């Protein structure tokens, strides 16, 4: 891998339901290019739906589309299933991200790659990182509301990831998303000022 591959890239990460996609949308409004690893993963899931059937059974695929919510149930609760799926998807996701970032590097200005598990997996030699931060209590509340789940399930999902306080310490830039949207917009503008 040539080391100028991610020269202008900034990994955008955080925890589940800390507001990564909202921040991504705000960055786009400011004219930044972004690559979304989750979107790529969803696309690749459907493209590899036959593999999913082979691995987990046809009840997880309907009309060539993977039923992500159903699949999620056996992935979150079972380490072996999770590793099997990651072994299939991660190399393909990485290839796609590299392909898109090669195009973005030609503009020679900062762009963001939204990678939820950037610190957990460390597959990407991206020099800088931006963490979208929300205190854990608020993260749990937001996730319960967003996915319509109880506190126990929310805590389980969050515990699959590295603690948000630790990510905050590892980050080059931090956006605090513990207040309202107006505050978040100010935070985004402040960080853009630090980056440019």
Percentage of residues assigned to helices: 55-70%
Q: Characterize the biggest β-sheet.
A: 5 strands, parallel
Name the poorly predicted regions: none
SS class: alpha/beta
- The outline comes out as globular
Strand order of the largest sheet: 2-5-1-6-7
Strand content: 5-15%
Distance between the termini: 26 Å
From N to C, what is the helix and strand string? EHEHHEEHHEHEHHHEH
Q: Count every beta strand, where a strand is a DSSP E run of 2 or more residues.
A: 7
**Rg, Cα atoms, Å:** 17 Å
Write a compact overview of the structure shown.
With 196 residues, the protein is of the alpha/beta class. It contains 10 helices and 7 strands.
Walk me through the structure.
With 196 residues, the chain is α/β, with parallel strands linked by helices. Helices cover 57% and strands 14% of the residues. The chain is built from ten helices and seven strands. The protein has helices at 20-29, 37-47, 49-56, 68-76, 79-105, 118-121, 136-147, 151-159, 164-170, 181-195, and strands at 9-14, 34-36, 61-62, 65-66, 111-114, 128-133, 173-176. The protein has a five-stranded parallel β-sheet, with helices on both faces. Strand 3 and strand 4 form a beta hairpin. It starts with 8 loop residues before the first strand and ends with a helix. The mean pLDDT is 93.
List the helices and strands and how they pair.
Elements: E1 9-14, H1 20-29, E2 34-36, H2 37-47, H3 49-56, E3 61-62, E4 65-66, H4 68-76, H5 79-105, E5 111-114, H6 118-121, E6 128-133, H7 136-147, H8 151-159, H9 164-170, E7 173-176, H10 181-195
Helix pairs in contact: 2-5, 7-8
